[in-house]
Amino acid sequence: MWPIAWRLRGGTDHVEFKLGKTMSQAETEFLRALFDAAVAAADPMITVPLALPPKPSGRVVVVGAGKASARMAEAVESVWGPCEGLIITRYGYSRPARGIEIVEASHPVPDAAGQQATMRMLAMLDGLGPDDFVLALISGGGSALLCAPAGDMTLEDKQAVNRALLESGAPIGQMNVVRKHLSRVKGGQLAAAAYPAKMLTLMISDVPGDNPADIASGVTVGEKSTVADALSIIGKYKIKLPDAAKAVLAGGSSVVKPDDLRLTNVENRVISAPSQSLQAARQLAEDQGIQVRILGDAIEGEARDEGKRQAALAKSVQQELGPEDPPVLLLSGGECTVSGWGGGVGGPNAEFVLAAAMELDGQTGIRLIACDTDGVDGAAEVAGALAGPDTLSRARAIDIDPADVLKRSDSHTFFGALGDQVVTGPTLTNVNDFRAILIQPPEA
Fold it and tell me: N or C: which end of the chain has fewer CB within 10 A?
C-alpha cells in the first residue's frame, strides 16, 4: 500500500502516515482534509473580492439571500467599506456587518422572518433610478429564504408547497420551476423590482450545471419556463398543492422573461462553483502522488442508487490496480435526492455513504466521504459521513441493521451511533455535495 502525507489542517508541517495500524486514521483524516480543501476554495472571503468592481459613485444598495450571503456581504464590506442594504441568511449563518443589515430566517421551509424581510427588500429596491447601483449576493438556500408568495397564497400555503417539493424527490431544477411560478420575487422578479437601476449579481452555485437561472430560483435571471411546465412537473411527481397555489397557476404567473426590458441593466456572474472545489481537492491529492478521476460536478439522482454505482466502480478500479500502483481517488459533485422518505433522520450525502458501504460489504482498501459543502445534509445539522471496510461490521456489533436503516432513510442516526458523522457547523458557503472515494491498491 501507499503512504499518504499532507499538510494538517491549521498546521504548518507535513506529516506522513505510514500504513498498517494507523492507516484507518490516516485515510479518514485525509478524506476530511479533501473536504476542507473543497470548502475553503469556495469561501466568499476569497472569491467575492476577486469579482468586485470598484465601488460605484452614487447610491449603492446591497441585497441578497442564501446560506453564503452573509459571508458574501462581509467580504463586500471588507473591500467597499460600510454599505446600505439587506441580506437574508439561514439561522446560525449570520456574520458581522458594518452597514448591511443581516436577517436570519428559516431554511429549507420558509418562515415569517424570511417573508417580512423579503417584503422589506422589495420596498428598498422600489423607486431606484438609473444612476443607482444594486449589488445582489445570491447563493444556495436563497430560494427558501426569499419568500413572497404570489396571489392569495399565505405563508402556510408557501410552507406546504416547500414541504411537498422536498418530499417529492424531484431534481432541484424542477423544484425551482414550480417555486418560481408561485412567487413574486423569483424568476427575475427581484431584478425587475430594481429597474431602472444597474445591477450586478454575484452568485455562488449549488446547482448541477451552474445555470444562473437555477441558483436560488434565479431571482435576477429571466425565466424561460411556463406555467404549463410547472404543472407538468407537479403531475409527474404527484406534488400536492394547496388550493391557493392551484389558483395562482390557473391565473398565470409573473415571472420575467429573458427579453424583458427590466433586465437590460442586469449582469449575472457565477463566482464559485462545484468544479472549482473539486479541483482544489484534486490538487491536494495529486500533490501526494494519488491518481484522481473526477466523475462529474453535476451528478443527480437517487442518493442510494448513486452510492451503489460509485462503490461498484471503486471495486472495479481496485481490481485493475497492481500492488505497486499509487492509490486512486474518485471525486464527484452535484446534488442527489432522497425520495420516498422512510421517516428517519437522514440526508442525501449520508444515504450515499451508507448505500456505498453496503455495496462494498467490507471490501478492504476503500474508504469514502460524502458531505454537503454548506454543512447541512438534508434538514440535519450534519454535513455528511465517512465509511470504510469496518462500517457494517461495527454497526451489526451494536445490533444495527444497515438494510433496515436504509429502508427508513435513517442514515444520520446510523452514522451518529458509529461516531462517523462529519459535523462542521455553518461553513458560510454552499457549492453543493462533495464526494470522495479513496481506493488503495491490493496488497502484494
Answer: C
